[in-house]
């Protein structure tokens, strides 16, 4: 215990000294976080606090190795530690580079996978799941599960780093609980590593808590997420995803939940999966009226409760563990609901989305039936047959009235040219209208529709569709009327109308060229 306490003091003191220096370095070389609509700070602040945490962590391990105690002697440059530190350096490096020069999400994601792969090659891997004493091997999936584990934690810490002291405080809670668990399990190397990490973060929080003077930056958040992921695997029983792994999962429960829901939220809203937004947990709390400090303290409270719950669950192996999980699950659902996350995955939205997919793929009966009418229109041999098929489509769409204006003219300058259609075969709405000056008109209406009383109604939907050919010539106009008091507009009516318009244009051009 003396070694752990000494290691903690060394890391704390070093962090208190190095963090201001790292901040000055960031200010000097332009690694600044400028305020914007997503940020709560009002002036540019350096993003190089992670540099101090990494330097403190490495220097603390070097100094601790000279303590010459049973615990400090466990520190050595064995293969897992070397590869873990190598991967952490890569992960920190790409994050630090991003702090100075903005990188695309794809590039950062690629290097996160590279860093996680380095740890995997060093033997820090998940071989299987240890569930209530039964071990289930994952075989060739080990690599993919391990990479997912690292990438999940890296981005979880990064996403939650939106309020002063938030990410660092959550990592500190996780480190403290991991130290306690490691000591109880007599895994002193893991305890020593998490002690060094916790002291480094605590010293940094002195300058990062509201009002902050320095930020973690992507370099710092990437390093902390990577370290939590790697050390938790290193500290579990022979790298089995068992009870020990439950600690960081629950300790970082809020950022992990945020990381999983963020892509879902962006996907549902039609945004890029990695595009920044103001929908994270801390943003939601601010929108609910919490101040930045109160939001951080609330998340601290929830994280500490989750840490205690994790310790309890690790030490119980009977049906109480299952009951405990149910209670925690219910709490997560309630918390998520209060934050308004379920508005993105509500049943009506999900059902509507699947309806859209089915309709777009042509799986729905309505889409297939309308496609059949489109085919009939396109196969029309004359104008009268085409109009007859168009009226079938309008009946299916539950429109009430339609007027079809046709504008097909003679070829100018060709004495042998003839009308593209025999205008004498086209019924006109007004027999006295001159064929030469006014385009032909076709009318259709439901028997129950009174156009005179409905034409000025506030509930009348009017769609005037120009029929433009490939060369932008005006072939005519299709006017549609619908009284919304009689029937509401179908979910896919407007999409069907556009399909109808294109089909009519293609058919007109085909008949014109015959």
How does this structure look, described?
It is a single chain. This protein is of the alpha+beta class and 514 residues long. The protein has 18 helices and eight strands. The strands form three sheets. The protein has a four-stranded antiparallel beta sheet with strand order 6-5-8-7, covered by helices on one side. β7 and β8 form a beta hairpin. α15 runs parallel beside α18 and α16 runs antiparallel to α18. It is elongated, with a radius of gyration of 34 Å. The N and C termini lie far apart (95 Å). About 6% of the residues have low confidence.
Q: How is the secondary structure organized here?
A:
Layout: H1 2-29, E1 32-33, E2 45-46, H2 49-64, H3 79-100, H4 105-121, E3 128-131, E4 134-137, H5 142-160, H6 166-184, H7 188-208, H8 217-235, H9 243-251, H10 253-268, H11 281-287, H12 292-314, H13 319-338, H14 347-360, H15 365-378, H16 383-396, E5 401-406, E6 441-445, H17 451-454, E7 460-468, E8 474-483, H18 493-513
Antiparallel strand pairs: 1-2, 3-4, 5-6, 5-8, 7-8
Helix pairs in contact: 1-2, 1-7, 2-7, 2-8, 3-4, 3-8, 4-5, 5-8, 5-10, 6-7, 6-8, 6-9, 6-12, 7-8, 8-9, 9-12, 12-13, 15-16, 15-18, 16-18
Entry keywords:
single chain; 514 residues; alpha+beta; Beta-Lactamase; 2 domains; four-stranded antiparallel sheet; two-stranded antiparallel ribbon; 18 helices; elongated
């Amino acid at each position: 215990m003396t070694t752990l306490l000494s290691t903690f003091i060394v890391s704390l003191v070093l962090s208190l000294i190095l963090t201001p220096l790292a901040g000055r370095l960031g200010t000097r070389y332009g690694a600044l976080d400028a305020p914007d609509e997503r940020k709560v700070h009002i002036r540019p602040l350096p993003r190089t606090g992670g540099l101090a945490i990494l330097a403190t962590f490495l220097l603390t391990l070097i100094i601790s190795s000279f303590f010459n105690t049973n615990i400090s002697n466990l520190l050595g440059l064995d293969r897992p530690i070397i590869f873990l530190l190598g991967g952490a350096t890569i992960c920190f490096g790409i994050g630090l580079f991003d702090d100075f020069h903005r990188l695309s999400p794809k590039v950062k994601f690629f290097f996160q996978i590279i860093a996680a792969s380095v740890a995997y090659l060093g033997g820090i891997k998940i071989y299987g799941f240890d569930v209530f004493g039964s071990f289930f091997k994952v075989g060739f999936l080990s690599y993919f599960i391990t990479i997912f584990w690292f990438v999940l934690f890296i981005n979880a810490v990064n996403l939650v780093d939106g309020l002063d002291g938030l990410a660092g405080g959550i990592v500190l809670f996780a480190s403290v609980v991991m130290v306690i668990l490691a000591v109880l399990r007599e895994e002193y190397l893991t305890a020593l590593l998490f002690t060094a990490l916790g002291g480094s973060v605590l010293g940094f929080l002195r300058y990062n808590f509201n009002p902050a003077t320095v930020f973690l930056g992507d370099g710092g958040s990437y390093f902390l997420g990577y370290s939590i992921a790697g050390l938790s695997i290193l500290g579990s029983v022979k790298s089995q995803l068992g009870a020990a792994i439950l600690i960081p999962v629950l300790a970082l429960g809020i950022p992990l939940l945020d990381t999983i829901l963020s892509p879902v939220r962006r996907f549902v809203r039609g945004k890029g999966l990695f595009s920044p937004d103001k929908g994270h947990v801390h943003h939601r709390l601010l929108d609910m009226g919490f101040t930045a400090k109160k939001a951080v303290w609330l998340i601290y409270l929830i994280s500490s409760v989750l840490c205690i719950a994790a310790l309890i669950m690790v030490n119980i192996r009977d049906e109480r563990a299952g009951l405990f999980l149910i209670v925690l699950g219910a709490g997560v659902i309630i918390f998520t609901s209060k934050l308004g996350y379920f508005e993105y995955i509500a049943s009506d939205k999900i059902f509507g989305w699947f309806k859209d997919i089915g309709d777009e793929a042509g799986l729905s009966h309505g889409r297939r039936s309308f496609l059949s009418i489109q085919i009939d229109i396109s196969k029309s041999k004359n104008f009268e047959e085409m109009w007859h098929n168009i009226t079938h489509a309008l009946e299916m769409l539950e429109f009430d009235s339609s007027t079809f204006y046709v504008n097909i003219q003679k070829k100018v300058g060709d004495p042998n040219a003839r009308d593209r259609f025999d205008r004498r075969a086209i019924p006109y709405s007004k027999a006295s209208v001159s064929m030469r000056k006014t385009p032909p008109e076709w009318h259709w209406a439901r028997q129950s529709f009174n156009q005179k009383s409905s034409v000025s109604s506030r509930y009348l939907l009017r769609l005037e569709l120009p029929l433009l050919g490939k060369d932008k010539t005006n072939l005519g106009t299709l006017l549609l009327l619908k009284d919304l008091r009689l029937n509401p507009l179908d979910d896919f009516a407007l999409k069907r109308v556009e399909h109808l318009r294109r089909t009519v244009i293609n058919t007109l051009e085909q008949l014109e060229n015959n």
